[in-house]
Amino acid sequence: MSILVLAEHHDGALAGATAHVVAAAQQIGGDIDVLVAGENVAAIAEAAAKLDGVSKVRVADNAAYAHLLAEPTAALLAELAGDYSHVLAAASTTGKNVLPRVAALKDVAQISEIIAVESPDTFKRPIYAGNAIATVQSEDALKVITVRSTGFDAVAEGGSAAIEAVDFVADNAQSTFLKEELAQSDRPELGAAKVVISGGRGMGNGENFKLLDGIADKLGAAIGASRAAVDAGFVPNDMQVGQTGKIVAPELYIAVGISGAIQHLAGMKDSKVIVAINKDEEAPIFQVADYGLVADLFQALPELEQRL
Amino acid sequence: MKVFVAVKRVIDYNVKIRVKPDHSDVDLTSVKMAMNPFCEIAVEEAVRLKEKGVATEIVAVTIGPKAAQEQLRTALALGADRAIHVETDERVESLGAAKALAKLVEEEQPGLVILGKQAIDTDNNQTGQMLAALTGLPQGTFASAVDVDGEKVQVTREVDGGLQTVELTLPAIVTTDLRLNEPRYAKLPDIMKAKKKPLDVKTPADLGVSVGSRVKLVKVEPPAERQGGVKVGSVDELVDKLKNEAKVIS
Ligand SMILES: Cc1cc2nc3c(=O)[nH]c(=O)nc-3n(C[C@H](O)[C@H](O)[C@H](O)COP(=O)(O)OP(=O)(O)OC[C@H]3O[C@@H](n4cnc5c(N)ncnc54)[C@H](O)[C@@H]3O)c2cc1C
């Protein structure tokens, strides 16, 4: 068996998710190559070469792969896939955009968001917003898979894999990158943070999200949100935690003014410790919370910031 | 421009699902079914494009059992002009659905195909991307804004870091995210009118495709249940528990 992992990277740096995908690849077993595609990605390739368990880093450094648009990136992966039994990527918006396209180009199914490897062709994945866990077996020779980071502990760094260039350049006259509006934040990434504090509709408005800032500063936490808070325009979309947003599993998750709809729980119920602050003692979030505080958040949050 | 919208019949998003005692699948007997929420957003977007004069005809398509015609009728009530039902009782996964859709796209040559980014049953998030691959068309996934401008479409995408805008040549495939629009409800007179709108039924064999899945569902289990914990009486007690009992803060 041989596995190709598509490296995830942002702003010129290898993203943490890649080390989790390599861990999933190790559980499948066999040689693991990492593909770094993008423009000016030499430093990213070097970082990928250090990940434990990687045999080779293949680098497609070309303007064609800038921003990892789906059309050229999928064409590249489809071109290289012939050498492999598995193609893996993080279940990020990049992986989710590109991998189904690769699978269809190769006329195979794609398996989304695996959380466990049972054998090289059998995997576990959540369905129905995580209210059921399916064990699925691929009957295709090539397995194309996205990996949920929270299911696999990241591999360490200590390797020194060979780095080799890939010459293939995909033609793409169909899609052009225009612009990006990326959230600027000094806080840890939601998916990687040890502590996450999220606000919901109960926060009332965007301004009130500042009440979470001081607490997040003290705990080194990332700040998340429910869909209702994003839909209402309190905070941007990249903060949404849930079935159709980001999946997090920190040591500590604090849900503030969030009712606990199944779609929200889908994104955070694997957290180690869950705290809920809600003024409605019947709120479903309390059914999953290790520690529930029935209180008005406008009183509880300043107090919490002070006590920490 | 002709616009295709794909819709899927799924469990209503408010329903808490049950796993069958034999762990073969989830139990959908006498469960409330509905149009997948992301497909509702897709239909709404198509209707808005027609209201703006960009779309001239909206064709709603579904692949699934006979009962899925209910969701096609909903799409017709919301403003689709006609519907195509690819009828099958097989367990259809994304690749099969994409193959059937690709055949229809080849036959009918729409300028734009809009799909939901994911169905809330399998949570696959694949069909639009696969359809784009099979038709050789560009894709704008997880859209929060769609602007058709002559021969091109600009799609603003919800990505992990924020928003990304791409420009695609038409025809193109778009998948919807939650913030694209807020779907309207069907009005009673439109529901009545929808009953008379054309609905074509085809089989996968008519289209010359096989829609069966090559991913075997080995078993389905309920997730590990989380035990509810305790209620604390004050912020002080909460901080104390987090420090000394859970030991997650210092
Ligand atoms: C297709 C689909 C996908 C979805 N995906 C997601 C997703 O990924 N993530 C997600 O989060 N949701 C998602 N949802 C939405 C989900 O169903 C809920 O609507 C949403 O999570 C509710 O957000 P909320 O808890 O903030 O708001 P509400 O349900 O309105 O809850 C607000 C809570 O705040 C409490 N509150 C109000 N004021 C105060 C106060 N002063 N002090 C303390 N507490 C207060 C209230 O008691 C209430 O419990 C999705 C829905 C659909 C249909």
Give a description of the structure:
The complex is a heterodimer of chains A (308) and B (250). Chain A has 308 residues and is an alpha/beta fold. Chain A has helices at residues 17-28, 42-49, 70-80, 93-105, 210-219, 227-231, 262-265, 297-307; strands at residues 2-6, 9-10, 13-14, 31-38, 56-61, 86-90, 110-114, 116-119, 122-127, 132-138, 143-147, 162-165, 175-182, 195-199, 222-225, 252-256, 273-278, 291-294. Chain A starts with a strand and ends with a helix. Chain B has 250 residues and is an alpha/beta fold. Chain B has one domain: HUPs (Rossmann fold). In chain B, strand 3 and strand 4 form a beta hairpin. Chain B is globular and about 65 Å long. At the A-B interface, helix 3, helix 4, strand 7, strand 9 and strand 10 of A face helix 3, helix 4, strand 9, strand 10 and strand 11 of B. Strand 10 (132-138) of chain A pairs antiparallel with strand 14 of chain B, so a sheet runs across the interface. The complex binds flavin-adenine dinucleotide. Flavin-adenine dinucleotide sits between chains A (200-202, 226-229, 240-245, 257-259, 261, 263-264, 267, 278-280, 283, 296-298) and B (13, 37, 120). Flavin-adenine dinucleotide (FAD) sits between chains A (200-202, 226-229, 240-245, 257-259, 261, 263-264, 267, 278-280, 283, 296-298) and B (13, 37, 120).
